[in-house]
Amino acid sequence: MINLNAGAPKGPLAEQWASYKSGCKLVNPNNKRKLDVIVVGTGLAGASAAATLGQLGYNVKVFCYQDTPRRAHSIAAQGGINAAKNYQNDGDSVYRLFYDTIKGGDYRARESNVYRLASISPQIIDLCVAQGVPFAREYGGLLANRSFGGTQVSRTFYARGQTGQQLLIGAYSALSRQIAEGNVTLYNRRDILDVVIVDGKARGVIARNLVTGEVERYSAHAVVLASGGYGNVFYLSTNAMGSNVTPAWSAYKKGALFANPCFTQIHPTCIPVHGEFQSKLTLMSESLRNDGRIWVPKEKSDVEKLRKKEIKPTDIPEARRDYYLERRYPAFGNLVPRDVASRAAKERCDAGFGVGSTGLAVYLDFSDAIKRLGREAIAARYGNLFQMYEQIVAEDPYKTPMMIYPAVHYTMGGLWVDYDLMTTVPGLYAIGECNFSDHGANRLGASALMQGLADGYFVLPYTISNFLSAEIHTPRIDTGLPEFESAAKGVRDRLDALKNTNGKESVDHFHRKLGKIMWEYCGMARNEAGLNKALGLIAELKAEFAANVCIPGGLKEYNPELEKAWRVQDFIELGELMVRDALQRNESCGGHFREEYQTPDGEAMRDDDAYAFVGAWEFTDGGSAPELRKEELRFETVTPSQRSYK
Amino acid sequence: MNFTLKIWRQKNGADKGGLVTYEVKGISPDSSFFEMLDMLNQQLISQGVDPVAFDHDCREGICGTCSLYINGRPHGPLKGVTTCQLHMRSFQDGENIFIEPWRCGAFPVLKDLIVDRSAFDKIIQSGGYVTVNSGGIPDANAIPVPKHDSDASFDAAACIGCGACVASCPNASAMLFVSAKVSHFALLPQGRVEGERRVQNMVATMDSLGFGNCSNTYACEAECPKEISVANIARMNREFLAAKVFAEKEKTISFSM
């Protein structure tokens, strides 16, 4: 087993990034114009990276599957973005944000990367404000903050419940400016189906034009993947319908390592599943836990009556309610990290105290906050979320408690990257949710937006020149090279094979089945027997898909079923890797909860002696099992301890 | 619930297209409009028929991908709601539902219910940004912004770029979309610096792309799923006139010098 080296700088943590940045190689402006960079994805990471690389003078090609870059799923992020500004003078600092993130990630992230992220965070807010992002403000005209799960300070900046939307519009505006100036070329409605490697370096991509069905080739000196997370492997998740793993998966199959695939985040506050035909789940922002109190009935008799709709939740007196988070975790109460809150909800529901028609829901109650602050104050903070809830559930959360249940939301795992955010393939970078780097085994709320923008605006534009400075003598890459020829042929062959299967079942049929397997055996709680069973079920599903999928329509036209088929085929393979990863990690940490490894009171039990490493998987050709490689995690500044939020 | 659907089918931009009738049965009132279309598509796939293509992505009302005239109204019968947030409980059992793509010269049909809205991107590229680079930025609290202005700017910036304003307008005008972006920046000190240039360029681009003029019917505001106010149009007109006057003054000064 070969160990991986992140290439993090030496020296005191607080000085590493500043001194490393000064040592990054530079490319002069004349040469930048001659260097092409491909960016895949236009969410916060991709749009900010493409805009900044364009601003620096590189010749950028940016791709998205949506009709316009502004629709990437970062837009749906609700609650906010963290930054160590300490505007509230409540004891925050770069170190504290770093510490909270490392601890929140259950000591499975790299210290050097997380410290860099925390130290960049204040700059992000400065830039976004300069771009015109309308963050919430106090009457004095300065910026407002709120608190979020897993922290005891108020460091979250927000724009009502639409922070992701406003930040993405900021990045999209910056990107639009670069497109107008001719530094960036936009290719919309394109799926990236393969990464092209020439002489060991990433030199291009194969795209399918979703409108014409044409298989297209694009070349560059370097390729940046910002294609997001893989939560849709569970079929039902809070991701957009089109969110997919395909660009990252094609990189994995071309030699980039895939790290910690089993680290997935189940978000505690989503609207519960209501039926078989359901296509997606809707998140209710974590910020609601600032003012909402989570509870279930104490008595099973009340649960029965609620399910039969004989009583309403408001009929249950205070003494017969179990505010289980406040009971179990008095120090953090309703603001424990996401993994802890999700597991606690599952524990109560499994014990038979769940509410709603399915018994898979708990209450999130605002009546105390409305009494204390008034309806208007609550409406100003969460108005759009309450409206969204009412629209979906047809109940008024001002009058009756919301019902919530955990759902798949974010994936901490992703392509392995070094300190430069480069994968194990030279010239191939991964940024944002697409990489594994900063959140360990559990991400804290309001940190995804921070990481996406840190990577795109402030990290990659520096580190990519370490690679590109050596490429100034490389002429533009020719898309007629045999490597492009064979990659394009591979894509066409796979499309033909999908189309020619002529089976009986739709793509959704397989996707739904995969989702059920993953949720049941590789979801909020996992165990060895279940994971082994899942391996068998996924192998069967893979064979069934290959033999029996049905895709109407043609190859050379707009064909949404064909797009889905390719994505689901990749998800099935990824599902298998996630299960393998969950099996090898014989400990519980963050979002990865193995039932065999828990403390007597049901908390996750890590094994730092055996598992303080990043597990990165290497694809092996010819059907043999992938190989596990490790990056040891050394904690020189913080001392890992059993996480306690009590 | 059961429904009779009359859906616009069009193979591609060159095809003439027409309405086709489908029946769907056993739909739960709790299912969303798109989940109902998903069920129709599953039915069509099992019959070997090409499923209906429609634009959708986040399905939570924020990405702006979804569109559709439903019974002649952009995003259907409810106020302040996108098609993806519409649920079948808002319809009568047995109802006939007409489903069509946006109709506007600047938004050509690509297939069935999918249109090309890249004209909106072109408008933003012509000025929908603040010209700042990622270095040398002052501290975020160095520029205080009155809460009222910041909130009003947010209200304008909440536009999701879906195109319902254009679709609802008898003249296919994009004034609400463009004015929301102009207002978002005009209300903030950061955006004021290049305000004149922005409004002139964005209006010129809008005109060149074949969008019509505003005749104050306010259909756009009524149908906007994010309830963007027509007050933005008035603000844009003021900005535009002021910028013109300002530009004339500049010219006079430079001639006299």
Main attributes of the structure:
heterodimer, A: 646 residues, alpha+beta, Flavocytochrome C3, Chain A, domain 1, Methane Monooxygenase Hydroxylase, Chain G, domain 1, five-stranded parallel β-sheet, five-stranded antiparallel β-sheet, 19 strands, B: 257 residues, Ubiquitin-like (UB roll), Fumarate Reductase Iron-sulfur Protein, Chain B, domain 2, five-stranded mixed β-sheet, 9 helices
Helices and strands, with pairings:
The complex is a heterodimer of chains A (646) and B (257).
Chain A: H1 13-23, H2 29-32, E1 36-40, H3 44-56, E2 59-63, E3 81-82, H4 94-104, H5 111-131, E4 156-157, H6 163-180, E5 184-187, E6 190-198, E7 201-209, E8 215-219, E9 222-225, H7 246-253, E10 258-259, E11 264-270, E12 293-297, H8 300-307, E13 321-322, H9 324-328, H10 338-350, E14 362-365, H11 367-373, H12 375-393, E15 402-411, E16 414-415, E17 428-430, H13 448-468, H14 482-499, H15 507-522, H16 528-548, H17 560-584, H18 608-611, E18 613-618, E19 627-632
Parallel strand pairs in A: 1-2, 1-9, 2-5, 9-17
Antiparallel strand pairs in A: 3-4, 6-7, 7-8, 10-16, 10-18, 11-15, 12-13, 12-14, 14-15, 18-19
Helix pairs in contact in A: 1-5, 3-6, 3-13, 4-5, 5-13, 11-12, 15-16, 15-17, 16-17
Chain B: E1 3-9, E2 18-24, H1 33-46, E3 69-70, E4 73-74, E5 96-100, E6 109-111, E7 114-115, H2 118-125, H3 147-157, H4 164-168, H5 175-186, H6 189-192, H7 195-208, H8 219-223, H9 231-256
Parallel strand pairs in B: 1-5
Antiparallel strand pairs in B: 1-2, 3-4, 3-5, 6-7
Helical stretch tally of chain B: 9
Helix content percent band of chain B = 25-40%
Tell me the overall shape of chain A.
globular
CATH superfamily of the largest domain in chain B: Alpha-helical ferredoxin
Count of spatially separate domains of chain B: 2
